[in-house]
Amino acid sequence: MTVDIKTAQGTTDYNAIVVGAGFAGLYMLHRLRSSGLKVRVLEAGNGAGGTWFWNRYPGARCDIESTQYSYQFSSELEQEWNWSERYAAQPEILKYVEHVIERFNLRDDIQFNTRVESAVFDEASARWVVTPTEGKALTAQFCIMATGCLSSTNLPHFEGLESFKGATYHTGQWPQQGVDFTGLRVAVIGTGSSAVQSIPIIAEECKQLTVFQRTPNYSIPAYNAPLTDEERDRIKANYPAIREFGKRQFLAYDLQMNEKLAADATPEEIRAECEKRWRLGGLYFYGAFADLLLDEQVNQTIADFVRDKIKEKVKDPVVADLLTPKSIFGCKRICADTNYFETFNRDNVLLVDVSKEPIAEITPTGVRVGDRVYEVDAIVFATGFDAMTGALNRIDIRGRGDLALREKWAAGPRTYLGLTTAGFPNLFTISGPGSPSVLTCMITSIEQHVEFIGDTIDHLRAKQLRLIEATEDAEEAWVTHVNEVAAGTLLNSCNSWYLGANIPGKRRVFMPYVGFPPYVEKCNEVVANDYEGFRLGAA
Ligand code: NA7
After folding, report:
1. What distance in Å separates the CA atoms of residue 18 and residue 27, rounded to the nearest whole number?
2. 13-152+387-437+467-515 CATH fold
3. Taking the complete model, does pTM exceed 0.90, yes or no?
4. Looking at residue 11, what is its pLDDT?
5. Pocket of ligand 1 (CB under 6 A)
6. Percentage helix, strand, coil, to 5, in the chain?
7. Ligand 1 center from residue 197 Cα (angstroms)
């Protein structure tokens, strides 16, 4: 691709362009501005919040407690904001985002309704040329992709979909004005986290709900509840310690990790710990034992506990069996629910197993499986995302020698630290593949990346250097290391979106890096060793 750099430079030139105004893009803007940079954030939506802007489906809420799933870079922000519940619902998270924008005066540097089509490194000028689908190209020395891990929706191909006469929705692109299902017959396709959160609410509202399940998921009750003033005060008084402790944890937040091995525990001890985890709720189950995701036998003992709990909740034994996962526990991200399994006891809810016989087609009036058409007025696709690489590959990103990122990554993403990729100087990815990202509390990971990028740019400017680029060797070693670490766990053993296994044709590669503290240590070492693995240059 050739870029008319003169035309592009005749438009608007910045020190840095940030793509995306989610949690990553907003903090990146704030951080770079505090170093005196002229920054422009380009955002496809008509509002900020990224994943939380688009995922407005009924019941959308975070699965990490909000007092941990929130920014920690400003103690003033921590102290002034009051979360109303343990797990904030999507509208409250968006309010928080808006508060952050106002508080740090970010809005004027964000250009909404601007979807980036291409980002091309012009070697002659050593600048990035970023072109939106509409409007002028922008240029900048640095280009930072804050495009999110779960932002490119996955709508599988269903024969006949265009013939459907009713309304269709994807959980990840929910209408801003909301949807009223009252009196309607609704289909939900998929039983991942988005379905698990939305099904109980849609079932209450609609006339008849039919759920199409290909794979059952482990879900633990969230036990969401309002936060009392006392709880909030206690957390606020201890925020520095809570955050510091969180950052030393494998998943970058305090999930009350039990360091013991289940392999060394008696069946009674295992049962007691599982009961404790069940009461703590949601993702706290990941902290049950240190060998939960390392030892298959241990994993299945714990899985059996959860399977029994599911069976206790669902009255019809056939439905209960269908809803009970057989796979490795926690290999796919476990869900945190409110009345998910109980919903299948309702008279207006039907579960259709499509594991052996897939959905054959969408007809004008419903969903056909085998000979049977399930007549519906609306279809909700809760079919997930082209995770981690989808949003990046959607943009035509080109580095040295016109190399396209999506070609470079055809056999799986290749990065150094999940932050950079060789051949693409001055391009950074926040929570990119090869970084802990989705295996951690995302906001904590985002902050670590933003600070690394901010400090790196400060360093370059202080040394009057213009370019930073990962070396091929460092990248190769990092990709190998990411794979080796994942291979030592059970996380490779199911068809999860961590592996890209949910997208037909996507190369099966475990994308996130397992372990936040060792990752941060590596980043710190890289900096201490004068940006080891990077080439820094004057031009
Ligand atoms: P997920 O977890 O990827 O779930 C998608 C669901 O859609 C899952 O149950 C899939 O079944 C199902 N699916 C996908 N394609 C089909 C077809 N063709 N037919 C039937 N069912 C299908 O996405 P979510 O949005 O729920 O959650 C993503 C993350 O967001 C979650 O992990 C949290 O971190 C927050 P499958 O399992 O592939 O058989």
Report:
1. 10
2. FAD/NAD(P)-binding domain (3.50.50)
3. yes
4. 56
5. 150, 156, 171, 189-195, 212, 214-215, 333, 354, 359, 382-385, 497, 502
6. 35, 20, 45
7. 12
